[in-house]
Amino acid sequence: MADLEAMPEDWSSALVVVAHPDDMEYGGAGAIARWTAQGKKIAYLLACRGEAGIDTMNPAECGPLRVNEQIASCAAVGVNVVEFLDHPDGLIEYGVPLRRDIAAAIRRHKPEVVITGNFRETWPGGGLNMADHIAVGRATVDAVRDAGNRWIFQELRLEPWNGVKYVAAASSPLATHAVDITDSFDASVESLRAHKAYLAALSGDMAEPEPFLRGVAEAVGQRFGGVLATSFELLQL
Hints:
Pfam families: PIG-L. Keywords: Hydrolase, Zinc. This protein is of the alpha/beta class. Helices cover 37% and strands 16% of the residues. The mean pLDDT is 97.
C-alpha cells in the first residue's frame, strides 16, 4: 500500500459536514484540533441530530442530548460554531434538499476547505459503510460545486462561493493524504469522550476512545512516517 502524502495546510478556514454527532470524532478530530491550534477557523454542520442513535433512548430525549454532546465534543478541539440540520437520523436521503442545505452553509461560511466523512461503500478495514454517511458525503461533494453556481438555489439569496480549494473525506478506504496528530491526539480522545451517552450504549472496541483511536492512528502512521496520524481522501474539484 502506497505511503500517504501530507495534507495541504495553505488555508485558513474550513467547514466540516457530517451526518451524525460522533462521525468526525472517530478519527478526524485530531486533525481538527491540530488546525484550530494553528489558528484556522473551522465550523461544523451536521445533517441530523443523532436522535435515532441510541437504541435504549427515545428519539425525543436522545436528539437534544446528542446535540449537547456534540457541542462539547467540538469545544474539545477548538470549534465553537456547530450547526444542525433536521434531516431524519437513519433515513437521510441524497438529493436536492440535502444539497441545497449544504450549499447554503458553504455560501454562508465561505470555507477554503470542506471536510466530510467517508462516503465510499466500505471502511478501510472492509466493513460496510451506512447509508447516511454515503448520502451526506456525496451530497457535500456536489454541494461544493452547487455553492459556486449562482443560477442554482437562487431562492437562498446568498452570493455564490467559489473559494473552496480542497475537499477532503475522512477515514476513506481510498485515502491519499494524512495529518500528523501526535500533538493533538489527546484532544481527539477528549472530543470522542464527550459523547458520553452514546459511548455508554456501545459495546466492543468503539466504546473505548483511547485504545480505539490510538490503534487507528498507529495504523495510518505506518503509511505516514511512523507518527500518530489520521487520513483523508483528497478530492480533485
